Each structure stands twice: as structure tokens, then as C-alpha cells.
Amino acid sequence: MKLQDTKLTVSEIKEKVNRYMIETYERYDFLAETAKDQYIYDEKGEPYLDFYAGIAVNSVGNCNEKVVEAARKQTGEIMHTFNYPYTIPQALLAEKICTTIGMDKIFFQNSGTEANEAMIKMARKYGVETYGPEKYHIVTAAMSFHGRTFGSMSATGQPDNGCQIGFGPMTDGFAYAEYNNLQAFYDACDENTIGIMVEPVQGEGGVHPATKEFLQGLRKLCDEREMLLMIDEVQTGWCRTGEIMSYMHYGIKPDLVTMAKAMGGGMPIGAVCATEKVAKAFNMGSHGSTFGGHPVCCAAALAAIDELLNRHLKDNAAEMGSYFMDKLKNLPHIREVRGQGLLVGVEFDDAISGIDVKHGCLERHLLITAIGEHIIRMIPPLIITKEDCDKAFAILKDTVESLA
Ligand SMILES: Cc1ncc(COP(=O)(O)O)c(C=O)c1O
Known about the structure:
The protein is α/β, with parallel strands linked by helices. Helix content is about 40%, strand content about 15%.
């Protein structure tokens, strides 16, 4: 829908949002009317360089032609059926994902938080049915982020964050341990623990990659105690970090893994994959979703995953990520540049506020996100080039210099 079709002004659009919508977002103050590849355009056709990709979603670029065409075609064939009949996009997508990442089974959901809910439910049911009624506890990491529905929110180890305040009590059955501290996880697990749930890179928590020792150690701990290793790849999955799944950097395999964001190429879809043994916990009637496995989303996801794989976008993510991170180290007021592939975080010293950098970049038509007080995060489409990185760097440099 374009502004000219509505006969409204930009101010009138903003007024309607402010008047009618329950606002929980700090909006970028511009109208995103169209988008293509690594650019978003406002109503005047002004380009904004997209280094947030709808929060790590548009990995194959905005409005990727193959994804758009797959969704358009499927929309005209069969749009929604619920999960009673067999549908072709579901079957093909399930096979594609399971065979690509080497998991046995998949359950489709609509978002990252739902994928995590399904993972938590599956682990709990498996634990209780296999070992007894108390075996449902899960250890997650402090500063983790797993979503905003009750299970995922309770799994999230950020009690002081706005995403939990006022919503208590959280769901029982979660304990939290310091990220990248293997001993802390050993200490937090007890005889009632069925699983350990972590992100391979803490994205919302400030862009902190797991160390090899930590993730491999968690795998060993889970093996020793017959617990499940549950990996949340909602943000890291599907090539963003330079591997198809971030856990692949570590030479480990989880028992359960969730995904969402990039897998749909811009359409809302999420999923949990599990080993055969654990997947059996879900049986007739035990879980479901009206829209999960929606044919249009599955068709789009199939096209997006084909694009990611056929265009070797994990390799571009690795190459551009390392090029960009090296450059970013030349910014003034840097405390640390960290990340994995094109999940990039920059922590500034106390003189520079991340929010101010975000706003300064927006004025200069670069879109990024800020986390906490001094961190910015960049999660661009995986199709970006060195020129895009140079352009983003120049804008960031100008912005930080103007703030210092
Ligand atoms: C690691 C992780 N898990 C879960 C979620 C929740 O995903 P969604 O917003 O699709 O529910 C997010 C969202 O940012 C995330 O980064």
C-alpha cells in the first residue's frame, strides 16, 4: 500500500498509529513505504541503508524476488487450510530443513517465541514421561532472550528488563546461570533438570558469542546427565553467523533447536526441530497451532532457504562480518567490537550512548538497533557488499564524531 493510494499525509498516518495503536515500540521516525534488497524507501523514494533487516529477518534482502513470487503464487493456489489436509509447501519445507541441518523432525509455529514455547513444552513432556513428574526443570542463561510469551519470557534470564517487569509471577521450572561460565551451569543443574537452553550468540543480551569451551562443555554436561541441549537459533539461524546454524561453528549437535526470523524471508514462521526420541513427546492433540505451517509462509520459507543456500549467503555473512568488524574497530570511543558473521555488536565507552548513535545514524539514513546504554547492534541482510559496509562505517564514524 502506498501513501498516494490513501490520499493521506505522513503526519496523518503517524496520528492514526498514535491514536489507535497500543505502542510498545520506539519507532524510527520515518514512513517505510517500499523496500528492496538492502534498502528501505520512504514515501519520497529516499533510501535508508538497512542494517537491521526487520531484526535479523530479511536475510535474503528486502522483497527478495524469489520469496515474493513463491508467496504470491501460493496465495493464489491455497492460502490457509489448518493442519488437517496434507499440503505441498509444508512437506517440502519439512524435508528441506530436516535434511539440511540433520535433524529428525520438525514442528511449525508462527514466530520465535512460539517456537521456543514448543521446545520447552516438548522437553518438559519428554522429561516427565521418561523420568518422572519432577523432571521438567530447565536451566537457561542470565541475560538471555527467548521471547515474550509466558514460557519463553520465563526462560529469559533478565528479571530487570522491561520485557518481564509487571508480568510476574514467571512460570515455575527455570533456573539461570551465567553465560559462558560452564561451572555455573554445572552448579545450576540438579536431579530435576531435563535440559539446558541457550542462544549460541546472545543477541538481545548485547551480542555475546558463546565460547567453544562453553558450548562444547554444555553438550558434554547434557550427555553426562541424560539432559537435553536446547539451542535457540531464532536470531542466529539460517546463515547469519557464517554457518547455516550457529551451533555448527562449535562442532556440536543439539537435541532440540528453534528457528524463526530469517527462515521465512520476511513471512512469519518459526519451528522447532528435534531428535526422533524427543519429538515422540508430542503426540495426537498434545500441541497445535491454527496458523503453524501456513502454506504461504512455508512456500516463502522454502524459497528463502533455497536463496540462502544457493547463493552461499553464509559465506558472504562470514566474509562481510569479518570485513565490517575489522573496520568498526577504527571507530572512536570503542570499548569492544564483537559478533559472529553479520550479527555485529559495538560497545562504546561511557561517553557515547547507543541510542544517540542509533538516532544519529537514522538522520543520516542508516538503520541500526541499540541495546542497553552503550551498545549498538547491526544485523543487515546477508547480501550486503563491502561498499555497503564502507558506507555504514562512514555514517557511523560521522555520527560518533559528532556526538563525542
Ligand atoms: C534468540 C531469540 N529468541 C526468541 C526471540 C523471539 O522471537 P519472536 O519475536 O519472533 O517471537 C527472539 C527475538 O528477537 C530472539 O532473538
